[in-house]
Amino acid sequence: MPLATTTMIALSLQIINCFLFTATTLASSPPHGFTVDLIHRHSNSSPSRLSNTHLGSSPYADTSLDTLSSEYLMKLQIGTPPFEIEAILDTGSDLLWTQCLPCLNCYNQYAPMFDPSKSSTFKYKTCDTPDHSCPYKIDYVDKTYSKGTYATETVTIHSSSGQPFMMAETIIGCGHNNSGLTSSASGIVGLNWDSLSLISQMGEKFLGIFSYCLASKGTSKIKFGSNAMVAGDETVSTTMFMKSEKPGYYYLNLDAVSVGDTRVETFGTSFHALEGNIVIDSGTTYTYFPGRFCNQVHKAVENVVTADRVVDPSNSNRLCYHSGTIETFPVITMHFYGGADLVLDKYNMYVNRGRVFCVAIMCFADETKEAVFGNRAQNNVLVGYDTSSLLVSFKPNDCGVEETNQESLFSMFL
Ligand SMILES: *[C@@H]1O[C@H](CO)[C@@H](O)[C@H](O)[C@H]1NC(C)=O
């Protein structure tokens, strides 16, 4: 049961990025230009890309829930010969890093650690520094960090054609001093909007499109490129926004939250915005709202729940009740910009240990902190990111179950 300890919550939002490494980020070019360029290529200059071979070779990776940390782990391979790692799936940061030998200070990891000296394709990056080294340090909101050296390495993931999808000379972080993750994870794979992220390094061919379906148990998948399109019945889409202050984050605009029949508007609170007020993040467990708005949402829950209030057993100030059943609790709906109403399953919004149920929405007092739409709320929803059309799409789904062949959908799309 992915119920909380205080350490499992805000893993991912990355606060400080690296130093000594400069790259042109997607953030510096208007995302619209990107779109136009792709449409052009698709319709005219490279018709071969429309072939089924390309569609059939869409990359994907298996993911699973680490119940201890409530993080999703993506399986991928690095190096030659390929060496498997399981990295936390994080749309709130950019870098793909893994614990790397020799270790100055590594956390305990169950799986064997990556040894660059055993890989024929591993190369430390060189930088314009006195000793040409290229160090990085990445810090996350929950105090997790990784320090090490940038390197280029082959990254391999599965593909639907059966042929492995290989990304030569991918920039990764070889972490020699790392702290904060559970032993099941060998690192973090960043999937944000920045140029270093895995999806950005896949290149234009993959259209900046990926989708994942986070199952509460068993194996689920993350997909990249055209096979990752989310469409069809029950799909709702909302605009993604980028902020120049925090260029990598995928911001959505949350207009209101309904608790049962009570609609709580962001309008009139400091949370209200027109161009993004909440970051969608696969690497954070709970959903976080700023105090004033959040208290109204909690109030609305209190108004309908008749079960007894109990103190949060994990001391993290959650709204908790003693109840024999989840049925006692009201359905919560997120109203995103553009009429994208996401009706959440009760499992998404109430976490329990035994008979103690807590609301998976946490309030923070500092109104300037980032609101987060976390991974528990995204469970059993197919979530698609499309940076070329600037949309995030949601489609309720049973994520543990293989979906049907979507081939017909792709021909429609193309
Ligand atoms: C690892 O990094 C931390 C945080 O920057 C630092 O305090 C510590 O001294 C480093 N440890 C080693 C062995 O380099």
TrEMBL record:
InterPro entries: Aspartic_peptidase_AS, Pepsin-like_plant, PEPTIDASE_A1, Peptidase_aspartic_dom_sf, Plant_Aspart_Prot_A1, TAXi_C, TAXi_N. The keyword Glycoprotein applies. CDD domains: pepsin_A_like_plant. GO terms for molecular function: aspartic-type endopeptidase activity. GO terms for biological process: proteolysis. Keywords: Aspartyl protease, Glycoprotein, Hydrolase, Protease, Secreted, Signal. One of its GO terms (cellular component) is extracellular region. Residues 1-27 form the signal peptide. It comes from the Eukaryota. SUPFAM superfamilies: Acid proteases. Its main location: secreted. It is found in: Secreted. Residues 72-395 form the Peptidase A1 domain. Belongs to the peptidase A1 family. This is Aspartic proteinase CDR1. It comes from Cardamine amara subsp. amara.
